[in-house]
Specification:
Distance between the termini: 29 Å
Number of domains: 1
Strand content: 5-15%
Helix content: 25-40%
Structural class: alpha/beta
Order of helices and strands: EHHEEHHEEEEHHHHEHHEEHEH
CATH class: Alpha Beta
Largest sheet: 5 strands, mixed
Number of helices: 12
Oligomer: single chain
Length: 337
């Protein structure tokens, strides 16, 4: 592997009293009463160390891991690890956007991290590699590997999915349709949009072939390969809108998300067609034992876990999932003290 590939993991300690104080003070300026900014979003799974163990074991080729926080750090982290970079929001986000409790603002400004490599993978603290994953799965000769699959936006407001997410998806697609013609994009890179390796997902593209504009994109909720220059370019031509979004200290219906960078790569053809591996789980009290066993049996290369449960149920679910992670990742890694 010639090119450097970094990983970014944004993280927040929802129990940090200093962070909570600033959050509560900032909330007074807003009418915060929606799922998008619920405190449930900051519930701790207490399993971030397993993410680091899994990356070290199954993705040892990673150049650096950038742990992005408001300033607090997990107690286990080994600051002396040469592969670790700890980044505070104030290190790269312009001060006029701070403090921010909006993950979209945090992620839409990543191009400002000076030491970040051109090629990076946007992880989350709920993503766990379970089997070896080669660097070439994410980048081939410096080009991101991705799947160009359309998917219509579904406005919903049920369970763990808030209608806010539908607004953000719509905002992303509106911006894409402003700059790209679907017909031109797909004609230019037909073999990438109708790549047979996508399998049954191709039915989505075929089903939406009639429409002249993009109706939406399939988000597969896995770590995403991105290019720093792509995000910089979007800021150059849509800086006014991104500036407006970055002033939203909490998640708002007017937001854009980091997905805009991925969509932009797809529409410029700057990607290698490849079906995504891994499985996202919406973990509930009804399926958590099945998910835990899937982790133990390593049913796929990567899992992403999102919970939909009550606080009492969450304690039960967290215990079972973390027990499964401990079974397959029992040994400390170099990112731990």
């Amino acid at each position: 592997m010639s090119e450097k590939i970094d990983i970014i993991i944004p993280w927040v300690d929802g129990n940090d009293p200093s962070w909570l104080k600033v959050k509560l003070e900032t909330e007074k300026k807003y009418n915060i009463n929606n799922k998008a900014n619920s405190n449930v979003r900051y519930e701790s799974w207490d399993n971030l160390h397993y993410v680091f163990r899994a990356i070290e074991r199954f993705m040892p080729w990673v150049n650096h891991i950038f742990l992005v926080t408001c300033g607090h750090l997990p107690e286990f982290i080994n600051l002396d690890n040469p592969k670790l970079r700890t980044i505070k929001h104030s290190d790269y986000i312009p001060k006029e956007y701070l403090p921010t409790f909006n993950s979209n603002v945090i992620e839409l400004n990543y191009h400002r991290i000076q030491d970040l490599s051109e090629n990076y993978i946007l992880f989350n603290d709920d993503c766990f590699p379970l089997l070896p994953i080669p660097a070439e799965y994410y980048f081939k000769e410096g080009i991101p590997c991705d799947q160009a699959i359309e998917s219509p936006i579904m406005p919903v407001d049920v369970g763990a999915i808030s209608n806010y997410a539908s607004y953000v998806k719509a905002n992303n697609v509106l911006l894409i349709n402003k700059h790209f013609s679907k017909r031109v994009v797909q004609k230019k890179n037909w073999e990438k949009w109708y790549y047979e390796g996508y399998g049954e997902l191709l039915d989505r593209n075929r089903g939406l072939d009639y429409w002249n504009n993009f109706a939406g994109f399939h988000d597969y909720h896995m770590p995403v390969p991105l290019k720093k220059s792509t995000l910089s370019h979007i800021w150059e031509i849509e800086g006014e809108q991104l500036d407006m979004v970055s002033h939203n200290q909490f998640r708002m219906a007017s937001d854009l998300s980091q997905c805009i960078s991925r969509y932009w790569q797809l529409c410029t053809g700057d990607f290698v067609p490849q079906k995504s591996i891994g499985k996202p789980y919406l973990v509930t009290i009804d399926n958590y034992t099945e998910v835990a066993e899937g982790i133990r049996n390593r049913v796929c290369q990567m899992v992403c876990l999102t919970e939909d449960c009550t606080p009492d149920e969450f304690v039960i679910i967290r215990t079972a999932i973390n027990s499964a992670l401990q079974d397959i990742l029992p040994d400390k890694c170099g990112f731990e003290k």
